[in-house]
Amino acid sequence: MLIQTEIKQPQISLYTWEEYEQICEKVGEGSPFEYVEGEIYWRYTQELLPIDLVDFILSPAYSWEKFLQLIESYNLMKSSKEHQIIATNLNMQIAKQLDEEKFDYVAETNNLAIPNKTNSRIADGILTTKEKIFNEKNQLTNPIALIEIWSPSTEKIDKTDKLEEYRSIDSLQEYIMFSQDEAKAEQYIKKTKEKWENNLIEGLDKTVEMPSVNVKLPIKKIYEGVGLKKK
Q: What is the DSSP letter of 17?
């Protein structure tokens, strides 16, 4: 099968959920894709995947080595070093404090069900009760808190589309976004079904308090080792 990589072709047709599941299964755990109304996105940048790349993954010719070559040729890079450090720091801080008899924490693995939509998102961090509930599509349906680490390319989606989608999940109590480049977090805490409290936490001396799981995240610890932008 000849694959053209010189021109980055946009998707010209919608994909089924079964096709999305297939490409996630082929690429493996920690899939870098999200499914939004029949279209497939590279979740690290929220770019629409080129149709050639999707068709290659779905084809019998698929191989991991060729996949890596193609994402490099399309400039579809994985998460930045800063993103990875913040994610690791979050994992460490949450693991140290989380009551493991009541809650569970997973990073970048489970597809999230979005009510009344065909969309499927993969958050940077997901906190749940010990009993995870999945629907018939193997999407997680009962997160308590969701965490995203925003970059310049994902900030708009994280603060608009994902904010709306996540807040529509009945079980969700908190949504927290951390900036990749500044010591800053934005937090939404559910008060009622219609009302959410919005907090901006900025500065290395501040702490993000998560009442839903009784965890405190010192900003200084979360950004330890990250080269922050100077204001």
A: H
Q: At what angle do helices 64-73 and 51-58 cross, to 10 degrees?
A: 180
User: In the CATH scheme, what is the homologous superfamily, with its name and number, of domain 81-222?
Assistant: tt1808, chain A (3.90.1570.10)
Residue 83 to residue 8: CA distance in whole angstroms:
26
Contact between 174 and 216 (Cβ < 8 Å): no
Tell me which residue has tokens 């994985």: 78
CB burial of 119-144 (b: ≥16 within 10 Å; e: otherwise) equals bbbbbbbbbbeeeeeeeeeebbbbbb
Taking the chain (231 residues) in consecutive chunks of 10 residues, what is each chunk's mean pLDDT?
46 82 87 92 92 93 94 87 95 96 89 93 95 93 97 94 96 98 97 93 97 97 88 58
DSSP 8-class letter at 188: E
Strand order of the β-sheet with 143-150 is 103-106, 125-129, 143-150, 174-179, 184-190, 196-202
The Cα 103–Cα 63 span in angstroms is: 37
Domain boundaries, the chain: 17-73, 81-222
The C-alpha atoms of residue 67 and residue 71 are separated, in whole angstroms, by: 6
| Phi-psi domain of 33 (left: phi exceeds 0; alpha: psi -120 through 50; beta: other) | beta
